[in-house]
Design brief:
single chain, mainly alpha, 2 domains, two-stranded parallel sheet, 6 helices, 2 strands, 9% strand
Length: 144
């Protein structure tokens, strides 16, 4: 919605905004790994931005798992001595330490993880409805 849009606010402040989003996976994406999102997503977007605008460095924001991908991208760029490609990074609701899942840990156990891994191995991807179910459980109003 326009009245509470972070993107609109950024544009109103004079920033040129580019947005990337997850593809809805299906059987065509069975061979895609997290690395694929890094190489074909974030890094490809940085290349496209430079091609379109001439800018060699961007300010980036990542939300949820997109933030995890952004943190991974920062580490990758640092290892490649290209960290100047991202001037600043902002993270919204991003996990970078998966050893403690926080509130999500209430809803998952080893059996559920094994079941999801089995389904993902058989299909090659996680159904959006399965992911949505987990996030719906995290909504505070539903927990009261």
């Amino acid at each position: 919605r326009e009245k509470n849009s972070y993107i609109k606010w950024c544009v109103d402040q004079g920033h040129t905004v580019f947005v990337i989003s997850w593809v809805n996976p299906d059987e065509r994406h069975v061979d895609k790994l997290f690395d694929s999102y890094l190489l074909e997503g974030t890094l490809a977007a940085l290349d496209a931005i430079e091609q379109q605008t001439g800018e060699k460095s961007v300010n980036a924001a990542g939300y949820c798992l997109g933030g995890t991908l952004l943190a991974t991208t920062l580490a990758y760029l640092a290892a490649k001595k290209q960290s100047s490609r991202i001037s600043a990074a902002t993270f919204f609701t991003t996990m970078t330490d998966f050893s403690d899942p926080g509130e999500l840990g209430v809803f998952i156990d080893e059996g559920q993880i094994s079941s999801l891994e089995k389904k993902m191995f058989e299909r090659g991807y996680l159904e959006g409805s399965e992911m949505a179910g987990t996030f719906n459980m995290l909504r505070a109003n539903d927990l009261i």
